[in-house]
Amino acid sequence: MINAIVNYALNNRLMTLVFAIAVIVAGVFSFQKLPVDAFPDATPTMVQVFTTSPGLSPVDIETLISYPVEISMYGIPKLEKVQSTSIFGLSRVTIYFEDGTDIYFARRLVNERLSEAKRQIPEGMGQPELGPIASGLGRILMYSLEAEDKDQYSLQEIRTIQDWIVKPQLRTVPGVTGVLSIGGEVKQYQVNIDAQKLQARNLTVSDVRGALTQNNRNVGASFITRGGEEYIVRGYGWVNSGTEGIEDIQNIIVSKSEGESPIYVRDVAEVSLGPAIRRGAEVSSGEESVGGYVMKLIGTNTSQVLEDVNAKIDDLNKSLPEGLKIEAYYSQAELVGKAIGTVEKALLEGSVLVLVFLYLFLGNIRSTLIVVATLPLSVLFAFIAMRISGLSANLMSLGGLAIGIGMMVDGAVVMIENIFRHLEERSEEKVSVLRLVGESAREVARPIVF
């Protein structure tokens, strides 16, 4: 096989040259289309199911939520194992599948089984939801919202901007599967019930909760026809935002009996705007801040996604309220750049060293250039193979390629030196140069390959 390749290359030199040009073109194209990541993603195919139930202890979370979800997952095709973690107020069930299982197929199977799990979870204990389509290496960028004047915006205001402006905009970037908000204070309406007032009016907390739920929604009432025109009828019941919302909530009727004055929320509780209970914080330069994590979709090009995310951040910085700016403090782009730079440096240094030392020892510039030419051709051919096999360009694959450059040079040097030796030793023989080159190449081709 090896000898046949050598013979074909010598007898069809024009086709060999065309093949080399094709490798260059296809290699450059493959490298441009090659997914670029910081690290190889060795995360197994898995689907996570999250259930939030504030107030429940880990024991209750495991018994009432995690266990029903786990049981419902057994019997799924290509299932490998199921693991769960139950902490205060949160259940996380991870379903692992066999290697090679399509992630979207796995998520569809899990989603079908969740309907069974939901029936087994007691009402009011939370609704199981699928986690994002991300891997353990999906966190590609971390950022914080920085205010030039620390007194200009409160942590609550910055968190509101993060949740309602920055986060939705970043999720529109192709390849982004989710954005996690961290730090700050989540704004919420707080209804602080006075137990004595509630008891004096013979009411319960459930009565107040039911009244709030029923009076914070819109309803449709079809339409009426008058004068040949249709008028849409709708009931508007959403609570307004800001201080108007506080008044709306205060004026909600909790109970109304015939012949008696209605009992409003303001009669049994105090309504205010305040922060939700926090169990963590983000700190930047010794001060609390607000930020987020950008998660990329499995299988997407990290380099391209980061480029699009940074472009979106630049656009957002122009439209954010005055004095606010998004600052990225971690990005996989730096690691990706270093990985590519490692190969570029190895190629450049290898080519220069080979060019200098081979010319010094062989004294033949043509032979030296042939050896140097094998470096980019070999690397470009490797890019074609990586593209076909679906491998990404990352720190490990490119680093291995950089190490392999030495072996490429070694094989080329052995081949050239053997040909050069035969040409010198048999210069007086009446044998064609093409035949000498063929014999010399076949002599060392098999040992070089194997």
From TrEMBL:
Question: Which chain regions cross the lipid bilayer?
Answer: 12-31, 346-362, 369-389, 395-416
Q: Which GO terms describe its cellular component?
A: plasma membrane
- SUPFAM superfamilies xref list: Multidrug efflux transporter AcrB pore domain, PN1, PN2, PC1 and PC2 subdomains, Multidrug efflux transporter AcrB TolC docking domain, DN and DC subdomains, Multidrug efflux transporter AcrB transmembrane domain
Keyword check for Membrane, yes or no. Answer: yes
Is Plastid given among the entry's keywords? no
A GO MF label: xenobiotic transmembrane transporter activity
Any Pfam family matching the protein: ACR_tran
Keywords attached to this Swiss-Prot or TrEMBL record, sorted alphabetically, are:
Membrane, Transmembrane, Transmembrane helix
Q: What is this protein called?
A: CusA/CzcA family heavy metal efflux RND transporter
